[in-house]
């Protein structure tokens, strides 16, 4: 026994080093064992973040922007869901006025993105602008193009006399073509109210 104790005393440093190494080895093992779980969670979060823009894009594609004008109580631009019909837009606009001629529009038609709906007044001929909810396909008054029209072309436009026609042409020649109908308000003598009655007779 004395020889055994003597042998242990002589090698106590080696035994202590083995114990320390065992402890550090155990700590290292348990520390690295939990890391893959953390990485897995992080990967899952990143994946969800990448999917979010795709879902958002899909939602945006289901929203249409529609402009409604004419004989309605609250004309303006409305955001609606895909599948909405003209009748729904009329209700969103507060309904039609008493002197509205709804027979000239298709209230069951599905709206499209950036569509313009014009509700004519009684006695007014429905114009056929692009993407409008009109029933006919070729009838109605022909619109006058303000970027190419001559003075005589405005003679059938209600609200534009010879002097205003000359002002429109002079403004166009000085500043270039009109980008949209609202640019007419830059012409002297044409305001927002005048434009409201003119926009169904003119185009760019």
From TrEMBL:
<feature type="region of interest" description="Disordered">
    <location>
        <begin position="123"/>
        <end position="147"/>
    </location>
</feature>
<feature type="compositionally biased region" description="Polar residues">
    <location>
        <begin position="123"/>
        <end position="135"/>
    </location>
</feature>
<dbReference type="InterPro" id="IPR004509">
    <property type="entry name" value="Competence_ComEA_HhH"/>
</dbReference>
<dbReference type="GO" id="GO:0015628">
    <property type="term" value="P:protein secretion by the type II secretion system"/>
</dbReference>
<dbReference type="GO" id="GO:0006281">
    <property type="term" value="P:DNA repair"/>
</dbReference>
<keyword id="KW-0238">DNA-binding</keyword>
<dbReference type="GO" id="GO:0015627">
    <property type="term" value="C:type II protein secretion system complex"/>
</dbReference>
<keyword id="KW-1133">Transmembrane helix</keyword>
<feature type="domain" description="Helix-hairpin-helix DNA-binding motif class 1">
    <location>
        <begin position="152"/>
        <end position="171"/>
    </location>
</feature>
<dbReference type="Pfam" id="PF10531">
    <property type="entry name" value="SLBB"/>
</dbReference>
<dbReference type="InterPro" id="IPR010994">
    <property type="entry name" value="RuvA_2-like"/>
</dbReference>
<dbReference type="InterPro" id="IPR019554">
    <property type="entry name" value="Soluble_ligand-bd"/>
</dbReference>
<dbReference type="InterPro" id="IPR003583">
    <property type="entry name" value="Hlx-hairpin-Hlx_DNA-bd_motif"/>
</dbReference>
<feature type="transmembrane region" description="Helical">
    <location>
        <begin position="12"/>
        <end position="30"/>
    </location>
</feature>
<dbReference type="GO" id="GO:0003677">
    <property type="term" value="F:DNA binding"/>
</dbReference>
<keyword id="KW-0812">Transmembrane</keyword>
<dbReference type="InterPro" id="IPR051675">
    <property type="entry name" value="Endo/Exo/Phosphatase_dom_1"/>
</dbReference>
<dbReference type="Pfam" id="PF12836">
    <property type="entry name" value="HHH_3"/>
</dbReference>
<keyword id="KW-0472">Membrane</keyword>
<protein>
    <submittedName>
        <fullName>ComEA family DNA-binding protein</fullName>
    </submittedName>
</protein>
<feature type="domain" description="Helix-hairpin-helix DNA-binding motif class 1">
    <location>
        <begin position="182"/>
        <end position="201"/>
    </location>
</feature>
């Amino acid at each position: 026994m004395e020889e055994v104790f003597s042998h242990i005393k002589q090698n106590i440093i080696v035994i202590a080093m083995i114990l320390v190494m065992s402890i550090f080895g155990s700590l290292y093992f348990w520390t690295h064992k939990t890391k893959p779980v953390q990485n897995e969670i992080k990967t899952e979060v990143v994946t969800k973040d990448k999917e979010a823009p795709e879902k958002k894009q899909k939602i945006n594609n289901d929203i249409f922007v529609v402009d409604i004008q004419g004989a309605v109580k609250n004309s303006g631009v409305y955001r609606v869901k895909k599948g909405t019909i003209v009748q729904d837009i009329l209700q969103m606009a507060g309904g039609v006025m008493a002197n509205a001629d709804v027979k000239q529009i298709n209230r069951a038609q599905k709206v499209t993105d950036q569509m313009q709906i014009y509700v004519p007044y009684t006695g007014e001929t429905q114009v056929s602008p692009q993407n409008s909810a009109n029933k006919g396909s070729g009838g109605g008054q022909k619109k006058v193009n303000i970027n190419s029209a001559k003075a005589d072309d405005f003679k059938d436009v209600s609200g534009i006399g010879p002097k205003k026609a000359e002002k429109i042409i002079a403004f166009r020649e000085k500043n270039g073509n009109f980008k949209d109908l609202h640019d007419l308000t830059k012409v002297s003598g044409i305001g927002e109210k005048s434009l409201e009655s003119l926009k169904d007779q003119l185009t760019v």
